[in-house]
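user: can you give me the structure for this one chain? tokens are fine.
assistant: on it. calling the predictor now.
[tool input]
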Amino acid sequence: MKKKNILLKILSGTLLCLFIFTGTSVALTFNVYNDAGISGDDISTWEGSGASFNADYEDATAPEGTKSFETVSGNWAGWGVAHEPTPVDLSAYDEGELKFWIKAESNVTIEIKVEDHAGGQEPVNISATTSWQEMTIPISTFTLGGVDTSNIKMPFAATIGVAETFYIDDVRWMADVELQLDSIEVFPSSATVPSGLPRRFIAKGYTEESMEMSINPDWSTTGGIGTVSPSPGSYTIFTATDIASGQVVAS
């Protein structure tokens, strides 16, 4: 990790150097289908004959919201959320999971797949019952099958091979991602602080990919230059109390 020193000029002649060393885990969610809509540009459907599709099926039993996606199959049918012509990069979810809810009018097998823009796909068969079940499929199941998650065309697709009705709800990709701090910025980047007066400083952390991350460092001072409060936190109030040299440190 690169260390970035922020130098602040203080009226008393104090030199403040801030070093932040931290990391944090964040929960990422990419919603593919729910009551709010879809992630992509369109919904693609396919069928043998006599199928119908309703993405806004009013469903009082829906696990999320009040609607689910109803598919009525004449002999075989399926649908998927399509990102075309521009694929979506979901590689941040490689260590995560595809989650969704499913039920059917009878116990049937449903094929679930993810497809990249080059045609790479990996189907997974699941068993749907007459009660809502939350399904979880590791994303590694698809990547090991050759799917390029940085170039996703269809983040979810479901197909049934018989004449039956099934329902899908709350489709999303999820992952807990450990963000590693690469650099920090402190605002303001320079300041003049008269002795006895407070000054607020804010610390922001960034990953190597320039993604801002939440940090709550402990703040302290050296050299008897003044006090800081609160600590820990994403910001602190520094009060210069003496003409001296020292540091305000976030760690």
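assistant: here you go. The first strand starts at residue 6 and ends at 9. DSSP finds one helix and 21 strands in the chain.
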